[in-house]
Design brief:
about 160 residues; 5 helices
Length: about 160
């Protein structure tokens, strides 16, 4: 007569699921079930060995939060995404990233210069304030507020 429970039986129930299109996008992937001492579930480790993509350059892309505060940025992103809609995901992302960098050069790199210019104009307006330029002073203050918000979002 045997006492206790039958010997433990281990099966790999924790799995990953992918289709052929995913394997074509990520051909250099390995999957391992890891062992943990205190659980009946196995964590799954997915290793992706980067491969050279001929359509990608070596430059790295960094999305800047300050771009979201710029007028027209969201429209530019939507138009860009639609322009490259025939491309697969990675080339499409790369093309849109390149467009954002170009857009940024034309719209965002002059932020510090704009802040200094607005600060000078604000100081000039304050020093020569007669009461008639109230609206101009309000406009300058709002502009300075927007510029500083953009600078803050950048940092």
């Amino acid at each position: 007569m045997e006492l206790g429970t039958p010997p433990a039986m281990e099966e790999r129930l924790d799995r990953a699921l992918a289709n052929q299109a995913w394997f074509e996008l990520f051909p250099n992937v390995t999957l391992k079930n890891l062992v943990v001492p205190a659980s009946d579930h196995y964590p799954i480790m997915l290793n992706h060995i980067p491969m050279a993509c001929p359509h990608l350059t070596n430059c790295s892309f960094r999305f800047e939060n300050a771009w979201k505060l710029e007028l027209g940025f969201d429209v530019m992103v939507k138009e860009c995404w639609l322009t490259y809609s025939e491309d697969s995901l990675l080339p499409r992302q790369h093309s849109c990233a390149e467009e954002m960098v170009v857009w940024s050069r034309n719209h965002c790199n002059k932020l510090k210069i704009e802040i200094e210019e607005c600060r000078r104009n604000l100081n000039l307006a304050r020093s020569s304030f007669t009461g008639d330029e109230q609206h101009h002073l309000i406009v300058l203050r709002k502009r300075m507020h927007r510029l500083l918000a953009r600078d803050d979002a950048y940092w």
